[in-house]
Amino acid sequence: MSVPASSERRSLTDFPAGIRDLISRYDGFLLDQWGVLHDGSRPYPKALACLERIRQAGKAVIILSNSGKPGSENEATLARLGFPRALYDHLVSAGDDARDALMAGGEPAYRGLGRSCLLLVRPGEERLADGLGLTPTDDPEAADFILLMSMEPPAQSAAGWRPLLQRAAARDIPMICANPDRHRVHADGHLHEAPGLVALAYEEMGGTVHYHGKPHARIYRTCLHLSGLPAARLLAIGDSLEHDVAGAAAAGIDAAFIAGGIHRGELRWSAAGEIELESCRRLFAREGLAPQFALPWFQWD
Q: Are strands 254-258 and 293-295 parallel, antiparallel or unpaired?
């Protein structure tokens, strides 16, 4: 029988050795992909074994990703990187969240939106808008809205798209952002631009942006529905304070921060690869976000 999670949200962060120390407190886990399970090219050394142990403990697992790609394509990526489909119950992506909202059309931002979109995607990923009944255009003057789903830095960048964005902002057309991440960890260890940075640039021009994915509420409602669990019985695990930790907090879900992901370069590490706890605390204080737990990597122990 599992131990009930505390109904009081802690203000101080605990630093457990691994997920083993937390497994009895929760019935389900919301796991980020990039920066937690893998870096886009290879899995992190202890991630697969940790996920296997969570499943052996009989826990529900939902992969919650800010990817603009549909869940099926993310599942294929995970399989290629060595994460079998049996290790998680569902994969929920920001891209699917945006596509669902566009198809339903009932939310205020989508009523009367129009069907002509300025589609901003990585080369070769125009298919991400398929099945939505949209007419893509590369002309901001002909578009009813912008649909931002993916990008390929450095060939594509916020600066490179700036002329298009300025023309769209002059017409005051809205943007739908299907990936709110502003940076992602590349396999080379550096941070690369991500679509959320483009959305931020558009907002700074005065444009209106409707976001999908973490930390926004809609995608957490989906996860709660799929899990069939109350928020207090879930633990969100992610490497972004702005997205994973803030989103979980707003949804009433505890969070475990993974230090070795997107914030790795902002923290201090020992020669043995151990995280300096005070550097974590300083980061949390600076960002005004305190997760319930912090670990160097997604690891069992």
A: parallel
- Mean confidence (pLDDT) of the chain: 93
| DSSP calls for 250-280 | HTT-EEEEETTSTTGGGS-B-TTSPBPHHHH
Would you say residue 233 has pLDDT above 60?
yes
User: Which phi and psi (to 5°) does residue 128 adopt?
Assistant: -65, -20
Torsion angle of alpha carbons 212, 120, 240, 101, nearest 10°? 10
Residue 140 amino acid letter: P
pTM, to two decimals:
0.91
Q: E strands along the chain, which residues? A: 28-31, 60-65, 90-93, 116-120, 135-137, 145-148, 175-177, 183-185, 191-193, 209-211, 234-238, 254-258, 293-295
User: Which sign, positive or negative, has the C-alpha torsion 29, 65, 185, 73?
Assistant: positive
Q: What confidence tens digit (pLDDT) does each residue in 270-299 have?
A: 988 889 999 999 999 999 999 999 999 999
- Residue linked to tokens 């005065």: 206
Amino acid identity of 197? Answer: L
- In one letter, which amino acid is 139? D
Q: Which two tokens stand for residue 161?
A: 């798209």
Q: Which residue has the tokens 């990008």?
A: 151
